[in-house]
């Protein structure tokens, strides 16, 4: 399973990368705005800074919502670095843009997926990744994990190469359940990745080991 971090914060990206378990980064316009990044030049420079930290898979989202605009923006984003994956919203022109980029050999991440039908369309268009937003579904009393299960099954039925990138992951159990269901990738904030470290029996076990060692050494 690949781990992506869902942030535009360079310190968080560096911390996750230094842990040695990071496979990529997802951003979105809200996450970029949260870091105070705006204006074409600054946005490009920020994506480049992210690409310089990680090995691959930096999702950069287009702002345009029409086909020509998405193609123009996506091409510019893809030029920043080979690690860029162009993130395209799940709308009609977005599907056309995904098909276009797929033919051009440019990787895409189809974002804002909330149904199996949307995921099927994106796969048929040749998306590299689809991003079902499980937390946002849970927020409105739909089962986000059930959607992951459905998409994984559908893609398996037909051998689609599109990878299921579970997004809007809010806590460690989301991540673990996505792994059980066979999601290819999970993207989440740093705190969720670090949350996987925690177990009280690990803490108490280590404390005992160290105390016993100190006692035996006569300290
Ligand atoms: C995914 O690519 C999105 O950036 C993200 O996971 C959205 O998460 P949120 O629902 O916590 O904003």
Which SSEs are present, and which pair or pack?
Blueprint lengths: L1 E5 L3 H9 L5 E3 L2 H6 L5 H14 L4 E4 L5 H14 L3 E6 L2 H13 L3 E6 L2 H10 L3 E4 L1 H6 L4 H15 L4 E4 L5 H10 L3 E4 L1 H6 L4 H17 L3
Parallel strand pairs: 1-2, 1-8, 2-3, 3-4, 4-5, 5-6, 6-7, 7-8
Helix pairs in contact: 4-5, 5-6, 6-8, 8-9
The structure holds erythose-4-phosphate.
- What is the arithmetic mean of pLDDT? 98
Q: Give me the secondary-structure category.
A: alpha/beta
Heteromolecules bound: erythose-4-phosphate
**Order of SSEs:** EHEHHEHEHEHEHHEHEHH
Q: What share of the residues does DSSP label as strand, in percent?
A: 15-25%
Shape: globular
CATH topology: TIM Barrel
CATH superfamily: Aldolase class I
| Quaternary organisation of the protein chains | single chain
Main sheet? 8 strands, parallel, barrel
CATH architectural category: Alpha-Beta Barrel
Distance between termini? 44 Å
Task: Please explain how this structure is put together.
This protein is an alpha/beta fold. It has one domain: Alpha-Beta Barrel (TIM Barrel). Helix content is 55%, strand content 16%. The protein has eleven helices and eight strands. Strands 1-2-3-4-5-6-7-8 form an eight-stranded parallel β-barrel, surrounded by seven helices. It is globular. The mean pLDDT is 98. The chain binds erythose-4-phosphate (E4P). Erythose-4-phosphate binds at residues 6, 26, 28, 111, 131, 133, 135-136, 167-168, 187.
């Amino acid at each position: 399973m690949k781990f992506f971090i869902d942030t535009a914060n360079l310190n968080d990206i560096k911390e996750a990368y230094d842990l040695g378990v990071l496979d990529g980064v997802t951003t979105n316009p809200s996450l970029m705005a949260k870091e105070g990044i705006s204006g074409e030049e600054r946005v490009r420079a920020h994506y480049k800074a992210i690409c310089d930290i990680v090995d691959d898979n930096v999702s950069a989202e287009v702002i345009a919502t029409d086909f020509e605009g998405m193609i123009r923006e996506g091409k510019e984003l893809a030029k920043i670095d080979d690690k860029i994956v162009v993130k395209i919203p799940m709308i009609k022109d977005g599907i056309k843009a995904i098909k276009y980029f797929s033919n051009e050999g440019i990787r895409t991440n189809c974002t804002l997926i909330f149904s199996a039908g949307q995921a099927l369309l994106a796969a048929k268009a040749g998306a590299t990744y689809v991003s079902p937003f499980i937390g946002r579904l849970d927020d409105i009393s739909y089962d986000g994990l059930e959607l992951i299960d459905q998409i994984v099954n559908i893609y398996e039925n037909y051998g689609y190469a599109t990878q299921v990138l579970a997004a809007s992951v809010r806590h460690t159990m989301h991540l673990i359940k996505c792994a059980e269901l066979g999601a290819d990738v999970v993207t989440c904030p740093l705190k969720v990745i670090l949350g996987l470290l925690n177990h009280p029996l690990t803490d108490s076990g280590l404390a005992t080991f160290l105390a016993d060692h100190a006692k035996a050494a006569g300290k």
